[in-house]
Amino acid sequence: SSLLGHNFRKHPVERENILSIWEDKPLNMDFLKGYNGRFNLKFGTIHHPSFKSSDMQLNAVIDDGVWDVQSLKASLWGGNIDIMGTLDVSSIASAKMEFKLQNILLQDMLSSTVDIDSLRGKMNINGRMDTAGISMNNLIDNMSANIVLLGNDIVVKGFDMAGLIQALPTVRSNSEVANT
Question: Is the pTM of this model over 0.70?
Answer without folding.
Answer: no
